[in-house]
Design goal:
- With 323 residues, the protein is α+β, with helices and mostly antiparallel strands.
- It has twelve helices and five strands.
- The radius of gyration is 54 Å and the shape is rod-shaped.
Length: 323
Amino acid sequence: MKRSSVDKKVIKEADQVPENRVRLRSAELTESNFKLYEEIQEHVKTEAALIEQTRRNEMILQTAMHGFWITDTSGMIQEVNPSAASILGYPPEELQRKSIYDFEPEDHHRIAPQIRKAIRNGATRYEAQLLHKKGNVVSLEFNTHFLDMGESSFLFSFFSDVTKKNQLVQSLKDREAELKIKIQNLKEMNIALKSLLKKRDLDMMELEEKVLFNVKEMISPYMNKLRASELNEKQEIYLTILESNVKDIISPFSPKLTSRHFKLTQAELQVAKLVRMGIASKEIAELMGLSRRTIESHRDRIRKKIGLDSRKRNLRTFLMSID
């Protein structure tokens, strides 16, 4: 039971007796010491907890992958962690003798405005280029905070190396620009190709017109004169074939026949032309130097390829229907 629970009435009565006064003062002194002991113990526990928390924070900063340093408001480095030293290539003790402005390239001055901003606003985030000990420039992303402790003030910054990330972003931008150029080149090539195809079509039309003109003006008149002269039966047939072949040059009959009817062979196409002209199988055999049986086989294959299975439909009639 605590001495602070001594009944006030008992204390008053005991105070009236001289020898009891000594005992009472002794009890009060013991109670005061006990309270002081409790306060000291509480303070020791609080201090131990702060020391443990400080130790943990120090361990976190020392093992963090991000760089960390503490600077005064003039930029002098007070403390650094191993990651900060590794990022810039300096031993920690060497960094602690430098100013953060010592690492800025001559043509880069971005840190000072950001430090003023951190002091003014309490914190800031920014990117800056600093010199590595080897002389190359590294891009760092900073997160800086300002603390005013009254008698002293300082800034602490976390930072990470974003050089490779920036290089990758720039590489992607360059690739995108390159692709845009290629796309534009493809568009221009496509326009040029369309123009060439159009010119080719015009050239083909011009060529077709020339061929048609030459046939009509230079070949047809002489064939007409031959037709008007006295010819024997075989000469008549040859002339008819010649007229048919010339007509094929200036008409779409052959292309339609080969494309619409499963691409007849050259021999089958020739037989089909002669059948279309009304020449009998016997005469076709004589003209082509083949047997009549072979010509009949050609006719059967032609009928099969063009889908003319029914014998009721005349082959010549069908072929003449193709314009």
